[in-house]
Amino acid sequence: MLDKTEGYSTADGRQIGGVLMEMKNITLRFGGVVAIKDISFDIRQGEIRAIIGPNGAGKSSMLNVISGFYHPQEGEVWFKGYRRGPMKPYEVARLGIARTFQNIALFDGMSVLDNIMTGRLNRMKSGLLSQALWWGAAEREENENREQVEKIIDFLEIQNIRKTPVGRLPYGLKKRVELARALAAEPQILLLDEPMAGMNVEEKEDMSRFILDVNDEFGTTIALIEHDMGVVMDLSDRVVVMDYGRKIGDGNPDEVRRNQDVIDAYLGVAHD
Amino acid sequence: MLYREAGDFKTTYRDDGQTFPIRLDRWGYYVTLAVAFGIIPFVINDYWASAVFVPFLIYAIAALGLNILTGYAGQVSLGTGGFMAVGAYAVYKLMTAFPDISIVIHILLAGGITAMVGVLFGLPSLRIKGFYLAVATLAAQFFLVWLFNKVPWFYNYSASGQITAPERTILGQAVTGPASTASAKYLICLVFVFALAWIARNLTRGTLGRKWMAIRDMDIAAEIIGVNPLTAKLSAFAVSSFFIGIAGALLFAVYLGAAEVGEAFGINKSFLVLFMVIIGGLGSIFGSFAGAAFMVMMPVFLKNVLVGSLGWPTDLAAHIELMIVGALIVMFLIVEPHGLARLWSLTKEKLRLWPFPH
């Protein structure tokens, strides 16, 4: 077992740091239904951490706990060495945690550029008067943040759709714009809820490449949920496996692949 | 070939973010301004001022206000008439209580007071959405009209229950009261429209506008990227009510001169402004103007055609006019549900390619 502050090296030679976020004994119930039962795991600085499991295992609930949508009845969430109290989602966002959604949650009426600019809202502080007169701080801030956003647009190769309303884009591009919006916030942890759901092979390849590049170039810590086992095993440094709200496996992809509980959960097991 | 953007390169983000990125649009804007400020005030007469221009300008402000709330922030409101009444009664109380202070300050303060009332009635929006919110704002409409009717302090205990605007001047020109001239009324409304439209544009293209639109398009996602729904919604109510309050103040002080609250600011007014916004185009500054123009000018135009050209009796014409306007609204919404603003932008897209569409 690794020490909290100690890092480790990945197979491809990247250096992973200490614990950035830690979930301790999380239990989440909806009425009588137990969605998450006593789960603990950590996310380390700079790693790609996957959460996998069959349908209804509680993966998305876990992500919603991290991003502040659900408040667990038991357990603690620690972020950067501090215990996080119950927070509203927008407060969590201000801590530096950004996410994408399983069903795309973009702002359909706005252009791609505006969508991505919303990701930087927390960095824009100009007052009402300055904004109303478009003078001083408001204009300066707009242009400075636009520059950052353009870097992300270049990075994700969506320059040509900059001014297109998001509602008109095909599915794969929408997913990419959503990633761009989350990245624009320059998050410390990026949560991706099924970033490749419903994509064809090429789109999946593109998306995988972007996820790896984001991790590599910006050093962003990534936690992702994904169904495509091939993708998960290739992308992630460590994997948490959930089934029926419990954690049944945790470790690097090879360990998880050999874990008998995981094999049973995925392939089914004969009860005799 | 006339209308194109090829060769019109933007080299800074500042240029790219400007309001009229296409050269021809920019010229059109300057020409419109020049005509509005430099020519119309000198040729305007009483008929044109009271039938067309002054109501158009005032309703444009109200439509801008409602568009900020409904079009940009996605909060449906049927309380526009009530909020206009707040602006009107506020300016009336201020005018009569502080006769020495400039009317411009009174109008701005009336907007501020309406903004506060708007925030108060906007509080339910934190819990309820859509139709339910519409019903809650409808309650604001009826409550405010009732309040101004029942509490004599608001109309200074006048026997008729009406409020009447005393004469006030700007730079020696009377802008309210019976002595005011057509061009003075027109100019004060125009200055307010110009300033407020500019502010509306600035607010909607910046951080605050993005917060509003984010809440409108998907409130959950907005919250997850860090928009506080409380401040976003209440700021939309505040700014929107500020605009609507100013429109109400101008409608009473400059246009009507005297008003009775149930008649001037009833539920009909709420619907009228809502129609303007829907017909003009939700979430568009241009649409607010187009909708106001349509709803103000269409009846005038029809009246002129039916009574003036065809010689129909006035009462018959008045009824037919209502039917035609109603039918036009329905037809229009079927043809283009996104309003005049969308029609205009489609035209522009076609024009960009004209005359070689392939």
UniProtKB/TrEMBL annotation, chain A:
Species assigned in the record: Paracoccus maritimus
CDD domains assigned to the protein according to its UniProt record, in alphabetical order: ABC_Mj1267_LivG_branched
Keywords attached to this entry: ATP-binding, Nucleotide-binding, Transport
SMART domains on file: AAA
Keyword Heme assigned: no
Record carries keyword Hydrolase: no
Annotated protein name in UniProt: ABC transporter ATP-binding protein
Signal peptide: none
PROSITE patterns: ABC_TRANSPORTER_2
ABC transporter domain sequence ranges: 21-269
MF GO annotations: ATP binding
Top-rank lineage group of the source organism: Bacteria
Automatic annotation (TrEMBL), chain B:
Keyword Cytoplasm among UniProt keywords: no
Membrane topology: Multi-pass membrane protein
Protein name, as recorded: Branched-chain amino acid ABC transporter permease
Pfam families, A to Z: BPD_transp_2
Organism of provenance: Paracoccus maritimus
UniProt keyword terms in alphabetical order: Cell membrane, Membrane, Transmembrane, Transmembrane helix
Domain of life assignment: Bacteria
Transmembrane segment boundaries: 27-44, 50-69, 76-95, 101-123, 130-148, 183-200, 236-259, 271-296, 316-335
Location(s) in or outside the cell: Cell membrane
